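Quick one, probably user error.
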């Protein structure tokens, strides 16, 4: 599953991943456990995180 693979690639816990990338932890759990599927925009966001996690985190941090 995309969400789980992406999070594992970052080496972060569910809580840390959710906090770092602005994703509700409950949604992340649902995606990882197959109860729900992220919408297409979220899937794209997860793919960008998988390729450039530090850059995404930096942009999010600077935007706050």
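Nope, works fine. Designed sequence:
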């Amino acid at each position: 599953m995309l969400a789980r693979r992406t999070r594992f690639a970052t080496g972060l816990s569910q809580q840390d991943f959710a906090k770092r990338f602005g994703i509700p932890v409950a949604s992340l759990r649902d995606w990882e456990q197959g109860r729900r599927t992220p919408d297409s925009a979220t899937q794209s966001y997860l793919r960008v995180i998988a390729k450039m996690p530090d850059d995404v985190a930096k942009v999010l941090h600077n935007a706050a």
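Residues 50 and 57 are 11 Å apart (CA to CA).
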